[in-house]
Amino acid sequence: MRQPLTLLTAATLLTLAAAPTNEPPTGPHDILISSFAATDPLSPGLTIEATWPVPPSDAFDILTDSAAWKDNFALDTNIDLAIGGRFELLFGSGATPPAPVGQQGSEGCQILAYVPGEMLAFSWNAPPSFAERSEHTWVVITLTASDSDNTTNLRLRHVGFGSGGRWPEVETYFHNAWTRLLTAMGEDLR
Q1: Is residue 91 part of a domain?
Q2: Total of domains in the chain
Q3: What's the whole-number mean pLDDT along residues 56-81?
């Protein structure tokens, strides 16, 4: 039986962005729409594909569980699987000395939508070295079973990059970073 769809669509994001608020989120799962850099879901963005040696349901569980990130990839995270829940990968938390809070990774990013075993969408920010860090983009990861037993074709779409400033550099940075990360994660699961 197909899982129920839990989704905040790009159309919903665009509708909400038409009258953005600068008020901070009021609840644990509110999404501050005005924090997004762009509202055009049709921007070319990035597409990165990888194959992981686990079935889609396991790939989804790995992507959405803090303990799995720690066990499989030795990475600290804050993940709350709910619309508006945290999706924070803390790349700088294990450094010696640790990176300052706010500069450890994807702090402040949130889950935008998910379908268990099939899709995960979340907001994303630039690294601390970019002023564009305060504005979010969004990422959609889809998971499909491959022709081989127990493997998953993972497709990542990263869209919503702003214009001007250093946004072209941010997009290039993420093309390289997502390619390296998804490939390394797949290799670590072997």
Answers
A1: yes
A2: 1
A3: 93
